[in-house]
Amino acid sequence: MDYLQIADEVAQKIWSYNQDDSGWKLAKNSKNVTVSWKPSNEYAGNLYRGEGIIEDTPEKIIPFMYLPEYRNKWDTAVKSYTFLERIGQVKKSVIRSPLS
Predict the structure, then answer these.
(1) Quick count: other Cβ atoms within 10 Å of Cβ 71?
(2) I need a surface site. Which of 7, 60, 75, 87 has the fewest CB within 10 A?
(3) CA pair distance 60, 56, nearest whole angstrom
């Protein structure tokens, strides 16, 4: 199985959600973050996206967003967060984040 190709396809799919402006409904709007949702065309459920501006460097923000020791502190929806495997460069990762 070509995990790098699968990771690239997933990254492209996620980027397409970011570029798609149609059909999103406001779920929550706070001072710094807007969360929107819309029904998925691929599965029975909704897509969610959060948008905001954080004024800092990627070197400081990316670890805060994705490393378990930081993510578990600010994302209360994540009960556990385990790094499974790195695929290619740092940008391609497989991460399991169960909600129960």
Answers:
(1) 16
(2) 60
(3) 7
Q: What is the pLDDT of residue 95?
A: 42
| Rounded-to-integer distance, Cα 36 and Cα 22, Å | 11
DSSP letter string, 76-95: TT-S--EEEEE-SSTT-EEE
List the one residue out of 1, 34, 32 whose CA is nearest residue 18: 34
Per-residue pLDDT tens for 54-99?
Answer: 888 888 888 888 787 888 788 777 777 776 666 666 444 444 444 4
Positive or negative: CA dihedral 82, 84, 90, 93:
negative
Q: How far apart are CA 23 and CA 25, in angstroms?
A: 6
Residue keyed to tokens 């570029």? 19
More confident residue, 7 or 96: 7
Query: How far apart are alpha carbons 51 and 66 in whole angstroms?
Result: 16
